[in-house]
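This part of the workshop introduces the protein records we will be handling. An example says more than a description, so a record of this kind follows.
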Amino acid sequence: MTGVTLTSAGLDPRRRRILFRCWHRGIREMDLVFGQFAETELARLSEAELDEFETIMAEEDNDLVRWIMGTWPVPERFQTPMFARLAAYKPDFDKPLRTPE
């Protein structure tokens, strides 16, 4: 079961791949943060922003959750507007989950 509500039909292959990866992180909290962020922001991210987003996504989930939740300081390399946008995004943890159509 995923929380995907955005259809990937209108997305280019890169954005489809990113959307899938956002909802299949490995830690449910990160699925919700990345997945819901991607559903809201993915279509309007520039190519440079997509590059940075994918760099962030390549990090270990356990580190990401600590940085995003503020329990560990964010490394200097991620003190960027994109990381700040992601960390500021507050997913709806009560949003009902459904499978993609």
In short: The chain has a mean pLDDT of 86. Residues 13-88 form a domain with the DNA polymerase; domain 1 fold (CATH 1.10.150.250). The chain has one domain: 13-88. The radius of gyration is 13 Å.
